[in-house]
Prior knowledge:
The complex is a heterodimer of chains A (303) and B (322). Chain A is built from 11 helices and 14 strands. Chain A is an alpha/beta fold. In chain A, the strands form 3 sheets. Chain A has a 6-stranded mixed beta sheet with strand order 6-7-8-3-9-10, with helices on both faces. A 4-stranded antiparallel beta sheet of chain A has the order 2-1-4-5. Chain A has a 4-stranded antiparallel beta sheet with strand order 12-13-11-14, sandwiched between helices. The termini of chain A are far apart. Chain B has 12 helices and 14 strands. Chains A and B meet through helix 6, helix 9, strand 12 and helix 11 of A and helix 7, strand 12 and helix 12 of B.
Amino acid sequence: MTAEPVIAVEGLVKRFGAFTAVDGVSFTVGRGEVVGYLGPNGCGKTTTIRILLGLLRPTAGSASVLGFDVQRDAERIRPNVGYMSQRFALYEELTVAENLAFYAGLYGRERHDVAERVGVADRLDVRAGALSGGWRQRLALGIALVHNPPLLFLDEPTSGVDPEARRAFWDIIYDLAAEGTTVFVSTHYMDEAEHCHRLGIMNAGRLLALDAPHVLKATRVAGPAWDVSAEPLLPLLEALGRIEGVANVSLLGDHAHAVTRQGAHDAASLRAALAGVGFGDVVVREAEVTLEDVFTALAGRGV
Amino acid sequence: MTVIAATAPLIEADGLHKSFGDTAAVRGVSLTVRPGEAYGLVGADGAGKTTLMRLLVGALRMDAGHARIDGHDVVTDTERARSRLGYLAQRFSMYGDLTVAENVRFFGASRGVAGDELARRSTYLLHFVGLAGVEDRLAGVLSGGMKQKLGLACALLHEPRVVLLDEPTGGLDPLTRQDFWQLIIRLLADGVAVLVSTPYMDEAVRCTRLGFLHEGRVLREGSPRELTAPLDGRILELVAAPRRTVQAVVRADPDVEDVAAFGERYHVRVRAAAGPLERLPRALAAAGASFTALRTIAPTLEDAFIALLAEGRSDRRHGIEL
């Protein structure tokens, strides 16, 4: 057993002119881990992946992938990793089997169970152009896996598929991880981020935290969360934000969602504080802390 | 009669159908959106969200059915219907080499808003969306969130009573998304009707009412709470390992309907919670799995959507056409 990380990044910086896309990022990813990178478009997710693929040179810092340095050994990295980008290229006129065979030919090697692994074995003769969103995603994953790489990069892999297809996709990812494939996923959606074993929160080029989603929720926000219902809604948001001990307020459908500092409030004291500013008919229920609460706590603009 | 006029629906779709060749994109969609409501269309790519919006703005002609915007038929009275609505398309096209203010003036002119009226509204709207102070910046260098806010300002220039937003916050950070949704809520407070599409449940939960769109049909509609209510007390969160053993043991329980993995946690959908809460810890231990925690949690919209899709399949198996 070797404990050498599959990805090791130390003090990584990437500047484009005056713009700093990646700003001093360090982390490691171990074998069989599913690690996510959560952040908005433009936060440095894709730049990081392109550095790790050996496509971009870092301005400063170091990164190694599968033991290969991204600057010195870039050409040894790419044959050993799979990459599924958001806008994956399928040959629409070719069948599922022909798409897989074509990409296997490019790499010069093929994992023979790939169609079974991604669940397209009963659709081998279907033209890629005739597949629906969920099946296209599976085929794209198959293409990323066709040369049996030990490391897989997924860039927003389940954008735009229905939740059932998303869960099925993640079941495949977990199977791969259980067999030792390491998976690095970028996403800007909280729903998808929940699936990762560990999750990095990215904003403006900085990695603000990296831990299991439930640990982030337990340790990175000020305290418990509450769903608060009263009318009218926007004044309610403002009133909540002014209450002592409230760390953050956001809008969640027809009600407000508030995070309070540890020990500052219970449902009764929140109701009392709101009654004091004219909200008589208020329903307060304890709620789950969300990844959005985590992002807000880390990226700033608390109350 | 003014009372009726005030609450009359601003968006009405009745039995809309639209096919492209052999592909039926929208298959009998009816919905109404009243003043002050944000109606969310939730579904995957290809579910029919964008086609439905394009039917409602009169950009596409429906094969069957009717649609009215503020009482005006979008086919027979297209111009008046369009004058009542603002539309932010998924790929909003602005002029990257014009400034923010120039873009607003251009869109104002194309909507027939000019002179002092345009100056007044553009000042108000740029302030409203939070772009006051960047009027002279080129639109092409704005951040993604600012571009969407500019798009919204342009869509609101003619003071529409109906606003259609096609996946308006894709790719934006949570703080900007919060800002954008607070703008939507302020429109609702003014009595505007909003129809907004999204593939993601964490967005959908912000709407006052939702329709789950699947293969061109609205499977069910209601408020987020109404949609999740049938699953109250029926979603358990389980923490245990390893995955294969956990899934096998959980699926074998007679009261379990579905199990889904989220990292090292599982959402287990059950017919009733009491049995599994008692049985699963013992069954997992007996199978050699490590058991950490099991508790009832509030159902999410994703849980509700998946339960609905599963229900649909089981109905079809029993010969019931949806």
